[in-house]
Structures are given as structure tokens and as C-alpha cells.
Design brief:
The protein contains 3 helices and 5 strands; from the N terminus they run ααβββββα. By secondary structure, the protein is an alpha+beta fold. A 5-stranded antiparallel sheet has the order 3-2-1-4-5. Strand 2 and strand 3 form a beta hairpin. The longest helix is centred in the N-terminal third of the chain and has 42 residues.
Length: about 190
């Protein structure tokens, strides 16, 4: 009797699987051919593209404001000689074609005294090459924002401005592509299928 029960349970499991699997396929096929399903997928696609469009615009405006701010500090900032007090390192995990990698990002922390006598420590823009990183004790010429002394740019450097412009252009490109895709999905939504 035990062996009979064990044998009997196996066919029930198979029967359940054989009944359930075609049912799932039927539901999938009906869902894929159902007009309402296509319409909801069109709305989902439109929603996702609009999210990307607004995220791209936000990135573009934020980056452009950073570029303008760095340009303003470069032209109106107060020059001062700062001393590198330490270098902070961060590990970033990135995926490349040949697999995951760890990229080390270096932040030089500069210390200086503002014109009103405040001792200020601030991070400079990140560097990705260890050969370009200044050592603690090294001096660097910077310009700082009088209203917010922690906002600095390197004297004679255009890296902050260039990175802001690149971010603004990238954000704008993402927005344009997302807007194009959203526009392409509108006829499907408006026609009802």
C-alpha cells in the first residue's frame, strides 16, 4: 500500500502541472492578443518614457546650474591658496563589457581661511587617476564663493564647467529621445489599440 500511495502522488503532481501549464500559456496568449492589454502596455510605455523625459530635463537643468555656478565663481570668486589636508577615496562598483570592476575615485580635501577669518575645509572635484591627485601638504590655488565659501573651483581650471556642460547635454539628449519615444506611442494609445 505504501508504494501504491507514492506512485499515486506523482501522477497527481504531473496532472496538476499538465493542467496548469497550458492554462498559464492560454492566459499569456489571451493577454498578448487582448486589446486592453496592449493599451495598458502602451500607457505603461508612455509613463516610463515621460519619467525618463522629466528625469533628463532635471539632470540637464541641475548640470547647467552647476556649470553656470562654476563659471560665476571662476569670474567673481575670491582667490586664495589652499592646502590639501587629506585625500578621501571612494570605491565605485561599475559594470563593463568584460565584467564588474571597482573604480577608485579620489577627492582632495582642501583647507583655507576665508577673508572673514573662517577656517574652511571642502572637497574638490573628483579625480579618477591617482597620478593627478595632490598629496597632503600640497598647495593649490582656488577661487571660492564669498556667500558660500565651501563652493570652490580650481583657479585656471575649467573642469567643473566642462563637466556641468556635459551633464546638461546628456540630460537634454535623454529628454529628447524619451520625448520622441513618447510621441511615437501616442497613436497606439489614441486609436485604442
Amino acid at each position: 500500500p505504501r508504494s501504491f500511495r507514492a506512485k499515486r502522488r506523482r501522477p497527481e503532481g504531473r496532472r496538476l502541472f499538465c493542467v496548469l501549464l497550458p492554462t498559464l500559456f492560454d492566459l499569456y496568449n489571451v493577454g498578448m492578443t487582448n486589446r486592453n492589454s496592449k493599451r495598458s502596455m502602451s500607457w505603461l510605455f508612455l509613463s516610463v518614457t515621460l519619467i525618463f523625459m522629466f528625469a533628463g530635463l532635471a539632470l540637464s537643468f541641475w548640470s547647467a546650474s552647476k556649470a553656470i555656478e562654476s563659471k560665476r565663481i571662476a569670474s567673481e570668486g575670491i582667490p586664495v591658496t589652499a592646502e590639501i589636508v587629506r585625500v578621501e577615496e571612494e570605491e565605485r562598483h561599475i559594470n563593463r563589457d568584460d565584467g564588474p570592476r571597482i573604480q577608485i575615485v579620489y577627492y582632495e580635501v582642501a583647507s583655507f581661511t576665508s577673508s572673514d577669518g573662517q577656517k574652511i575645509e571642502t572637497r574638490l572635484w573628483p579625480k579618477y587617476d591617482a597620478k593627478l591627485v595632490l598629496k597632503p601638504g600640497d598647495k593649490i590655488e582656488i577661487l571660492y564663493n564669498f556667500d558660500n565659501p565651501e563652493q570652490v573651483v580650481e583657479a585656471g581650471g575649467k573642469r567643473e564647467f566642462q563637466q556641468g556642460v556635459i551633464g546638461a547635454v546628456f540630460g537634454l539628449l535623454v529628454s529628447v529621445v524619451a520625448a520622441f519615444l513618447a510621441f511615437q506611442s501616442l497613436p497606439s494609445i489614441l486609436s485604442g489599440g
